[in-house]
Amino acid sequence: MTDEELYRRAVEVSERAYAPYSNYLVGAVALARDGRVFEGVNVENAAYPLGVCAERSVLSRAVVEGARPGDIEAVGITASPCGGCRQWLFEFGVDRVTFRNPKGEIVTYAPRELLPEAWDEL
Ligand code: THU
User: How much is the pLDDT for 122?
Assistant: First the structure.
């Protein structure tokens, strides 16, 4: 699956987001190195800060299915990832992150580019 296809699949997945408070539906799709594909959406809550972003949703799902940092090749997202999600994408050692930027362009970056001088426990 190409990065562009990952992004387009994320658009489809975003329809299943649970975002009744912001009405901002976000989808994320992760391609594992073994070919598996995981889907995630943002899930909001009436206690607003408890909501989870689509990126953390998809990486959590991948972990439940047995994936570990290093196992995810690429992630497609319908939105520019927030700062916290950039830290998650960095920790998971994703090679490429593709999303629609605020200008409407589909762009691909390495997590290190999205988080210069990243804090890393290791
Ligand atoms: N959101 C994501 O799921 N991912 C992002 O990268 C940006 C923001 C969600 C959080 C919240 O449910 C909604 O979008 C509005 O901020």
Answer: 58
The answer to whether 12 is a known catalytic residue is no
pLDDT tens by residue, 95-114: 999 999 999 999 999 999 99
The catalytically annotated residue of 39, 44, 55, 73 is: 55
Angle CA 117–102–18, to nearest 5:
95
From 31, 111, 35, 34, select the one nearest 75 (Cα to Cα): 31
Which residues form ligand 1's pocket by a CB distance below 6 Å? 19, 22, 24, 26, 42, 44, 51, 53-55, 79, 81-82, 85
Domain that holds residue 86: 3-114
Phi-psi category of 112—alpha, beta or left, where left has phi over 0 and alpha has psi -120 to 50? alpha
Whole-prediction pTM:
0.95
Number of domains in the chain: 1
